[in-house]
Amino acid sequence: MGASRPVWSTRRQELVLFLRGVTVRVAGRVAIVVGTILSAVNQGSVILAGDATGFTWTRIGVNYLIPFVVASFGYLAGCRAEPASPRFPVMGRTGAADRVPPQVPTICRGTPVMKGRDRVMVEAVFNGQVIARSEHTVQVEGNHYFPSASIRSEFLIRSRAKSLCPWKGIASYYTVAVEGVDAGNAAWTYRHPSPLARRIKNHVAFTPVVSVDETA
């Protein structure tokens, strides 16, 4: 039987758990993978050329530190003793999805893969209704992330569901509801993404239950 997860109910207790190192085993693995990738991409050529300075090694340390902190508090977020009241800015309405959140879909592949902004019009359609439309989406791991200004927020109901991606951070979910048809946790956003995913901050992506296609 695996070790029991730590439990906290106040922010002070959460901080104490972090300082005691209870997240080292989980967050350490994330930091090693993400930090190594970042260091190889950003500082690898400098090190191989023998031109590394103290500042270079400081930046490498930061490459490991930030993913460790993000993963640590993402892990601790799931250890709270009672359901957390939403603290993120609200997009859309609050409703039944807060009371009975459906299963959270898997949305992270664990490796940083991000494409530049498209310059083609992309639409998200659910139950015959266009709920998002933009030519400035960002593609990450095969998903189009729509800018918040392009979202029809009246069709989104905030959910309590959260999930952790090792390199993007904590995702918050929404149920998509159009004319009496609901799709639980079919949309998600990163309110406070990691530095690696800063380009999708406050953008919204959808699961396959919502049709996302390029238009002419």
Topology:
Layout: H1 11-19, H2 24-42, H3 44-48, H4 54-77, E1 93-94, H5 96-99, E2 114-117, E3 122-126, E4 129-134, E5 138-140, E6 143-145, E7 156-165, E8 169-178, E9 181-189, E10 204-206, E11 211-214
Parallel strand pairs: 1-7
Antiparallel strand pairs: 2-5, 3-4, 3-11, 5-6, 7-8, 8-9, 9-10
Helix pairs in contact: 2-4
Structural overview:
The chain has 216 residues and is an alpha+beta fold. The protein folds into 2 domains: 67 residues, no CATH class; 122 residues, Domain of unknown function (DUF427) (Metal Binding Protein, Guanine Nucleotide Exchange Factor, Chain A). Helix content is 28%, strand content 27%. It is built from 5 helices and 11 strands, in the order ααααβαββββββββββ. α2 packs antiparallel against α4. It is flat, with a radius of gyration of 19 Å. About 9% of the residues have low confidence.
Briefly summarize what is shown:
This protein has helices at residues 11-19, 24-42, 44-48, 54-77, 96-99; strands at residues 93-94, 114-117, 122-126, 129-134, 138-140, 143-145, 156-165, 169-178, 181-189, 204-206, 211-214.
Class from secondary-structure proportions: alpha+beta
> What name goes with the CATH superfamily of the largest domain?
Domain of unknown function (DUF427)
Strand content: 25-35%
Indicate the mean pLDDT: 80
Gyration radius, in Å: 19 Å
Shape: flat
| Structural domain count | 2
CATH class of the largest domain: Mainly Beta
Helical amount? 25-40%
Second CATH tier, the architecture of the largest domain: Beta Complex
Q: How far is it from the N-terminal to the C-terminal residue, by CA?
A: 55 Å
Describe the strand arrangement of the main beta sheet, using strand numbers. 1-7-8-9-10
Output the number of helix runs. 5
Number of DSSP E strands = 11
CATH topology of the largest domain: Metal Binding Protein, Guanine Nucleotide Exchange Factor, Chain A
Unreliably modeled segments: 82-101
Largest sheet composition: 5 strands, mixed
